[in-house]
Amino acid sequence: MTNALGTSLLERIGNTPLIRLEKLTAHLPGVHILGKAEWANPGGSGKDRSTAAIVADARQRGLLRDGKRLLDASSGNAGVSYAMLGAALGFPVTLCMPDTVSTARKKIVAAFGAEAFYTPSESGLDGAILKARELVGNDPDRFCYVDQFSNDVNWQAHYQSTGSEIWQQTEGRVTHFLAGLGTSGTFIGTTRKLKQYNSKMECIALQPDSPDHRLDGLKHISTSLLPAIYSPYLADRNVTVGVEEAQAMARRLAQQMGLLIGISSAGAVAACLKIAEETVASAGHSEKELVIVTLLCDSGDRYL
């Protein structure tokens, strides 16, 4: 028996459940699409994994001492996670985010007491990144710029947790893994771990189908500032999704399965279903079972 009562906030990060989306594949015998419910993390998204690791690394190296403010750019979810961790662990937080961030996220960040700069919507996430660089450049003594887009701790967090969890939760039956590209940390870290378990597993990178998209958290890689941690060589396949496809899947999951997820997560599910149907229809398909796993990075309540 342990003397500990309950769990700490940080102990709740990770070990999120896999949800079977069986209604989507009822017409595809032997095909399973599974979504990892990352909203079960305490900050409400999969970004808790990487931000907690980034914060722990910065604190261990003494970068957040003497009242320095943690600074980073975010499309929304990482900002919420940083704000939560700052309040819980006692350090100030400054965030740069596009003005298109949902009202719910803006209110959550404010509730945690973080400082936020909202950049013009037309400049997208890249505008927020440039604002963060401007802030630290003008006042380097005030800020600890952790830069999730260039920080290897980002992908290492998923290598150490997400990949192993997926393998264990599927009992090694996972055949395909799909994740969207934002910072690219989730895809890179999870893929590197899963490939160690099974080098023949197909790992698929997802991005929006155009630069002018409204899929929060995703980057159109060829027209955006390239994350330093991104590697173009890891993906076995690159696929795209449109905002209309993602919205339609979000409505379908909500109304037919009672599953309210964010628009980018719905786009990932739509891509998984397309891959499943194409694979089954292929004349060369000889798999007895397809197990396709994706991350449901947040819930839909942040978009209402």
Describe the structure.
By secondary structure, this protein is an alpha/beta fold. It has 2 domains: 10-45 and 158-303, Rossmann fold (3-Layer(aba) Sandwich), CATH 3.40.50.1100; 64-145, Rossmann fold. The protein is built from 9 helices and 10 strands. It has helices at 47-60, 77-89, 103-111, 124-138, 152-160, 162-169, 185-197, 243-257, 263-281, and strands spanning 18-20, 31-37, 69-73, 93-98, 115-119, 143-145, 176-180, 202-208, 237-241, 290-296. Strands 1-2-10-7-8-9 form a 6-stranded mixed beta sheet. The protein has a 4-stranded parallel beta sheet with strand order 5-4-3-6, sandwiched between helices. Strand 3 (69-73), helix 2 (77-89) and strand 4 form a beta-alpha-beta unit. The termini are far apart. The mean pLDDT is 92.
What's a quick, concise take on this entry?
The chain has nine helices and ten strands. The protein is α/β, with parallel strands linked by helices.
What percent of residues adopt helix (DSSP H or I)? 25-40%
What fold name goes in the CATH topology slot of the largest domain? Rossmann fold
Q: Gyration radius, to the nearest Å?
A: 19 Å
Strand order of the largest sheet: 1-2-10-7-8-9
The secondary-structure class comes to: alpha/beta
| Low-confidence runs of at least 5 consecutive residues | none
